[in-house]
Design brief:
Length: 87
């Protein structure tokens, strides 16, 4: 089942996703810095912010793939197969 945050992200535009990613990344850096210096009251906040960043990146990438042409998708499939064969 999809999380609330994932459902909310689907309503964002691509520009909003990029700006949200930028803000969240800055927030994560600040939290990490604060945690290093004086510790956080709730260190699990770092995990939540990291996961939010991953959700944003995933949604951005999902939209990039959905906008690809058939030729680009076929090239992507070939690259993935090649990577799997090289393992």
């Amino acid at each position: 089942m999809a999380s609330k945050k994932f459902i909310e992200l689907q309503d964002f535009t691509v520009e909003q996703l990029h700006s949200e990613l930028e803000q969240t990344a800055k927030q994560y850096q600040k939290l990490e810095f604060d945690h290093t210096l004086k510790g956080l009251e709730n260190p699990l906040a770092l995990r939540e912010v990291r996961r939010d960043i991953a959700r944003l990146k995933t949604e951005i990438r999902r939209r990039e793939i959905s906008e690809m042409s058939g030729e680009q998708l076929s090239m992507r499939t070939k690259i993935i197969k090649r990577r799997r064969n090289n393992r």
